[in-house]
Amino acid sequence: MVEIRSRSGSLPAIPDDLTIPQFQLDYRDPNRPIRPAHVPCLIDDGSGRRVLFPELQQRTQALANSLSSLYSIGEDDVVLLFSRNHVDYPVAIWAVHRLGGIISPANPDFGQQELEYQLKATKAALIICHPDALKTSVSAARQFGLSSDRILVFNVEGSTSNADYVTVDHLVERGAKLKAFSERKLKPGEGKTKLAFLSFSSGTTGTPKAVVIPHIAVIANVLQLAAHSKVNQDYAPWEDQRYRPGDVASGVLPLYHIYGLVVNLHFLLYCGMAIVIVPKFNFENMLKSIVRHHITHLMIVPPQAVLLCKHPAVKKYNLSGIRYIMIGAAPLSDEVNEMLFRLFPTAHIGQGYGMTETCTVTSIWSIERKRGLSGGAGQLVPGVVARVVKTDGTVGGYNDVGELVVKSPSNALAYYNNHQATKETFVDGWVRTGDEVKITTDGELWIIDRIKEILKVKGFQVAPAELEGTLLDHPDVSDTCVVGVPDEFSGEIPLAFVVLTADADARVQSSSRALEDIRNSIVKHVASNKVAYKHLTGGVVFVPSIPKTPSGKLLRRVLREQAKELRKA
Ligand code: 4UV
User: Fold this and answer.
1) 456 C-alpha vs ligand 1 centroid, how far in Å?
2) Which of 48, 245, 273, 351 is the 20 to 30 A CA-CA neighbour of 465?
3) In this predicted complex, what is the ipTM?
4) What pLDDT, in 10s, does the model give residues 73-122?
5) CA distance 270 to 447
């Protein structure tokens, strides 16, 4: 059996008896870079509010007091975090963790149906939301059966708070005077199984599932990234150190997604950096923010890299302060990679590769290589062991192409309450990634193709099975298959092949307008039930039948090829 091990340095002992907030806020890690007292942890992009480390600690304590005393949040209670990025996002996470609770982060743009799905799957006991997401929270909670006094709202300057809902500021103020909560401490080894997050991913097939992420997974990935980038290891010269206390990162990645949550928030805070909290991505605002806050680090996804290369506004701003750009979550074209190199001649630029199930980063460009190769996803981070499983089921070696299967101290444990899907993806501590890769003899990982079903639209997962379920709810659809088609900006976009019902077919035969009306109605149906990146922007193609295997499994590859041909025509 060929196992390919990371060669990117050694990993220090990973504490398995600490919760994430204990690791971030209390633990004196001898390797941790020292944050100068004046360097804020978070900066609110809009208001400029700076949150220093002691404030982060105090707010977390006070909120934990309130959540414990007033809402009885405790062991294994799930709190659904339904918010745009906000300076209190980590406060909410860590307050819940300190009580032994679990956080399930959700996309704040979700509609009622999508939120309800997550509430049901996690049996959430409380929602903490952004004011923009309050309306959806209220309607989904009602459907789910959660009373409205179990919805708390973040405070946002300029947004009039709804007097019916308790705000986080109010709870922090009250909590400072309440009885101190009793901290959930872990026994040695317990960090490996004690749940911290239920983040959603569709895995290799099917609808979105809650991924069981224990406390140690996040701590491990932070330490893996730190070891990989030689954080605080006297790596010289100083200019070449990738992450330094006082550096400032843009926080445009959403914190509900694993990349933003682990890399942008937990890892960069560990490094002593400041994170500019951006509630909603807007490209020109990002450019202004780079200049205003002297941003040095950009963690982005490929569509944002495309904008950096092609948007005319870029010329108006001095972006020379950028020292490092990390791109991940979806493939980046060679053209964009090369353009970035020209645009930022002195910056380190590279891709990271990871997934929710490996919480998070599996590979990334090493500090010695200032610029990633086009198409390459860097080196395995310390502690990762990889197998490359070829199509014949045997395990290959260097330069063989096959599915990447990884073992890492950061791996998630399972899909929550889903034995079948767990069995397919999590095998004896290994995670099947569903990505086709090659690892070269010099240890570089190349992503060749995605063999699992999911689509990546602007870096976000879209599960065909989820959209197919929604499409089948439409009265004119009798069968369907959703595939991704390439798109220059979004990477890929969803396109639906649809078989009409006999009734719809009859209408089409008798009226020349009927087909267009049905098409519009199907597109609208998906748009009104799903968040924007899941909309059928790739179109709807009517077909007489969907090709299937004798056992009834969709032949997605056939339709994917057909879709490509149709778009060329
Ligand atoms: O589960 P998920 O939505 O997770 C992610 C995580 C992306 C990260 C995380 C940490 C980083 O430092 C970083 O740069 C990126 O997206 O989706 C996982 C799937 O997304 C595809 C691949 O199919 C994964 O199984 N994917 C992720 N990164 C890349 C990628 C990449 N660099 N190139 C191509 N595909």
Assistant:
1) 9
2) 351
3) 0.99
4) 999 999 999 999 999 999 999 999 999 999 999 999 999 999 999 999 99
5) 29
